Amino acid sequence: MSLALEALFEKYPDIAACRDDVVAAYEIMRESYANGGKALFCGNGGSASDSEHIVGELMKGFMSRRPVPEAERARWIEAYGEEGHYLADHLQGGLPAISLVSHTALLTAFINDVAADMMFAQQVYGYGKPGDVLVGLSTSGNSANVVRAVQVAKLRGLKTIGLTGRAGGKMASLCDVTIRVPKDATPDVQERHLPIYHAICIMLEEEFFGK
């Protein structure tokens, strides 16, 4: 397994009990991406920020440059000349990821017109395809809008990953994999979620773009 995983548990030995679930979450995402899938992310408050953060690590170079493949680069240069060089030099390989917390107009309209607890579920229903992955972040594991999203995801054929605190809440029994960090206070849980998803993003980057 990746050195990133070993580094994670060396730096944060208090979450070593999560090792199997972290590996399982990585494998779910790796398989989805290998088969042309995408990942959706949702959460509230700090976990909403984490959703945005994870997308940033997946959709562009994180620990490596992820250059455009040479065959693709040559095709763009042939089509656009010097502008093709520019395109090839300024694009990076991405792993398709969507933060469901980002769509302000849709979210506010849905909260106002339909139901607040369904605002992520609606997007899962619209975006999600069998083989995709939904990652829900909730320190309690009981956030209603995240739970609803997981319920819809499962019926739509998506794999589901939860990042929660110790108790796991409703998500522990709903998600295919739930990473339950052994902390209870919200700040403590969120402080452990970040290095966990960083490690997963690094492993995915190594898998699909090399070191």
Could you characterize what this model shows?
It is built from ten helices and five strands; from the N terminus they run ααβαααβααβαβαβα. It is of the alpha/beta class and 211 residues long. The chain has a five-stranded parallel sheet, with helices on both faces. α8 links the parallel β3 (133-137) and β4 (159-164). The mean pLDDT is 97.
Q: Which tags fit this structure?
A:
211 residues, alpha/beta, 5 strands, 55% helix, globular
Strands, helices and their partners?
Elements: H1 3-11, H2 19-34, E1 39-42, H3 46-59, H4 70-80, H5 82-89, E2 97-99, H6 104-113, H7 119-127, E3 133-137, H8 144-155, E4 159-164, H9 171-174, E5 177-180, H10 186-209
Parallel strand pairs: 1-2, 1-3, 3-4, 4-5
Helix pairs in contact: 1-10, 2-10, 3-10, 4-5, 7-8
Quick recap:
This protein is an alpha/beta fold and 211 residues long. It contains ten helices and five strands; from the N terminus they run H-H-E-H-H-H-E-H-H-E-H-E-H-E-H.
